Amino acid sequence: MRQIFIFIALLFFCGNQLKAQFNSGRLNNMGGGGGGGSSKMQRDTGKHEHELDTLTISYQVLGDPSYYKIDSSVADFQTNYLKVPSSYATTGNTGGAAYNMIYSPLMKPGFDAGFHSYDIYSNSHKDARFYYTTRPYTELQYLIGSKQEQVIGLSHTQNRTERFNFAFDYRKINAPGYYRTQNTNHDIYRFTARYQSKNKRAHTYMSFYYNKINGGENGGLKYDSLMLDNNYKQRKSLPVNLGNNTSQAYAFFGGGTLPVKSSYRETGFLIQQQYDWGRGDSIHVNDTTDYYRYEPVFRVQYTFNYQNDDYGFIDSSPDTTFYTKHYNFIPSDTVNAQHKWKLISNDISLIQFPVRGNQGHFINLGARFESITGTFLDADINFTNLAVHGEYRNKTRNQKWDFSARGEFYVVGQNIGDYGVSGTLRRHINDLLGDVRLSVNNVNREPSYVYKYFNSNRDAWYNTSLAKENVTQLQFATDNAKLKYTLAVNYFLFTNYTYFKDYYHSDQYGSLFNLLQITFSKKFVIAPFAWYVDVAFQQLHGNGPLNVPTFWTRNRFAFEKRLYTNLNLITGIEARYNTGYYADDYSPLTGQFIYQHSQKISNPLPDIAAFANFRIKSFSAYVRAENLNTFITNNNYAAPLYPYNNFAFRVGLRWWFIN
After folding, report:
1. Closest CA to 122 of 59, 213, 205, 191
2. Residues near 325 by Cβ (< 8 Å), separated by ≥ 6?
3. Rounded to an integer, what distance in angstroms lies between the CA atom of residue 488 and that of residue 356?
4. C-alpha distances in angstroms, 279 versus 292, 295, 623?
5. What is the Cα 140 distance to its own chain's centre?
6. Spatial contact of 221 and 215, defined as CB atoms under 8 Å apart
7. Distance of alpha carbon 265 from its chain centroid, rounded?
8. Buried b (16+ CB within 10 A) or exposed e, 426-441
9. CA 17, CA 22: separation in Å to the nearest integer?
10. What is the pTM assigned to this prediction?
11. In DSSP terms, which residues pair with 260 in a beta bridge?
């Protein structure tokens, strides 16, 4: 009933918003904007008087003094609309378990539960947006695809008063998929708010999210050869490893019945309060308007964080052969597993601003106390941590230099000895040469808890011999808006690398090994044609248990032009390809991608799609024909026994409204 109420309210709300737009003519105020990067909505630059229908909007994230703009371009379906980078590999269906083929290790000290296969669809506090807007802003998204795939999204932000803003986001992903027992049904919620006192000395930021993940798990096909069997023209009839003999019903709200599924529930609540000491001034804007500006010199900051995470798996009709082979037990009626984690933390920080008027230049010293409780099917545990942290940041007012140095160290508790240190130096050379950045990051951390302990109602597995992992990242990066390219060179060094060597046993590789990674993106233009190229090169040195494709690329060949004053069109062909490698297998019961060196995934052709994206004022549309390569050869594979979909057709729509 809750989802039905939300959907009806969404339609009613957006209908009223759309009616308001046509009555007021405000659709003209979002700008033209083409397929390129010139279509971003501009933030407030300091004027405090606006025309009635002018929108200036920007946002910040916690701990970062920078302001960001909402991107309204239509150049990239994956990033701008679907919100899943094209370098991610899934288990074959939209919303399925996924990992990044351009390897990015977890570099965060302290406690971690270890369930990250669905992170790309979920919200967290680190990406929460706190908006500054002159007008109420609403955005609505809807996608429909083959096999009843649907995605809906709603975002809204407004200032209730000059000092109080709130924002709400909702996103639903529902895709039955092409194969048995792989239906996904996710509901993702977020609410943020910020408040500033009248004298601008007190600030409050609130972030809340709720991730409801339901991912159908089929364990992959029984055999690869089934894809070539003419008796299985309908992919839904192909035998799979889990849920093969059960029935499943589809329903957009509620997701129908999923006989085998991963069920994740992640709830987070954070509130941050700040109080400043400094100096305030009244600035005379015109004869009738004065603007009060407060420049802090010293700040006390308190942050309360509460997280409640429930990671579960259930198979109501288990396959005896699959569990005996991969998990070494004979199942009976039902197989289930569950890890529940509750974290409460309190953080106090003291912040000094050495230069008045520049909040990008500060020194931050603080401490955080954490209380963590774990509940499993067979036991409960609880422990505490005390961590100290500090940061020096100097982002100059002329925006040319940006230097930061951060450190965090766990001095007491379960994670004692964990630490993370990092340093970054960025220099804006000029508009022609762009930005150059150098950074170093080193993390020493206790392996995620799922590597140390995992249980189901049939068995429990322990690994008490794991040492702390150590990962170092060295990076050189450059970003050039004028020449339209980005380049990043990463060099990773790993010690005590922790991984799953089979479906439920973890292990560590104690020797040092390293990974060289180069990523490059560029837009070449010979008007009205454009070539967008994304390339990644990865080379492993040593015998570490890490498999990555040596070469990954995505190329978009497009015709893009502004037509009839307001129509911004980009249409063409997209091809995505990676060299063959031993792609990670997937363990449904533990929810983990696992290292394997027995089956190499070598797809004969790239994943090919045709697309037509366009924008008319505040309306955007994405029309795509995907997996065209299946008309020439067999389906490509994401992982052993996990093929990608057949030919698929998708239409995505995006509207934004100014009230």
Report:
1. 213
2. none
3. 34
4. 11, 5, 54
5. 19
6. no
7. 16
8. bebeeeeebbbbebeb
9. 9
10. 0.89
11. 315
